[in-house]
Amino acid sequence: MTPPRSWPLARVLAHRCGGLLAPENTLAGLAAAAEAGCGGVEFDVMLSGSGSPVLIHDETLERTTDGHGHVALTRDENLRALDAGTWFDARFAGERVPTLEEAAARCISLGLSVNLEIKPAAGQDEETARVVACRADHLWAGAAVAPLLSSFSELALEVAAQLAPHLPRGLLVDRVPPDWLQRCRRVGAAALHADARYLDRPTVIEAREAGLWVATYTVNDPARAQTLFDWGVDCVITDWPGVVRPAVTQHRS
Ligand code: G3P
Ligand code: MG
Question: Which CATH architecture has domain 12-248?
Answer without folding.
Answer: Alpha-Beta Barrel (3.20)
